[in-house]
Amino acid sequence: METYEILEQKVMDYYNFRLTDNWSSDVNYFIYEESTADGYSVFVASVEPNRVSINEDVYYYDSDLKDALVEYLRYTDREEEDLIYIDDFDAYFLKEAIQELNEDMLRDIRNFKKLEND
């Protein structure tokens, strides 16, 4: 297993989520590319793909999807595993999100250890 894959698995375990490219009713969060009526690409990150809010869920640049994914995972209840649909596992925003979430995870662990030692 490559270093990134190990990192990705640790982040998924810590934040209690899995990634899938299978669109189903079991998915909790969807990130995908969509085309506008005039042929432009936009990107959607939504809990409800059938009720997309243009103001809140649609992004002109795929690089903005990193922030959407990180925010969703930071503020989602971790008790039940989330299933996240992503149409491109090789997307750069996903790697950036995993790296940022890893930094958050390590900070949480350091803070927890610090509290234990106090």
Helix and strand run: HEEEHEHEH
Q: What percent strand?
A: 15-25%
Number of strands: 5
How many helices in DSSP terms? Answer: 4
- Average pLDDT over all residues: 93
Instruction: Note the main sheet.
Output: 5 strands, mixed
Helix percentage: 40-55%
Give the overall form. elongated
Describe this protein's structure.
This protein is about 45% helix and about 20% strand. The protein is α/β, with parallel strands linked by helices and about 120 residues long. It has a five-stranded mixed β-sheet with strand order 1-5-2-3-4. Helix 1 packs across helix 4 and helix 3 packs parallel to helix 4. The radius of gyration is 16 Å and the shape is elongated. It starts with a helix and ends with a helix. About 20% of the residues are buried.
Any key phrases for this structure?
five-stranded mixed sheet; elongated; 5 strands; 118 residues; 4 helices; alpha/beta; 20% strand
SSE layout and pairings?
Elements: H1 3-15, E1 17-20, E2 29-35, E3 41-46, H2 54-57, E4 58-59, H3 65-74, E5 82-86, H4 92-117
Parallel strand pairs: 1-5, 2-5
Antiparallel strand pairs: 2-3, 3-4
Helix pairs in contact: 1-4, 3-4
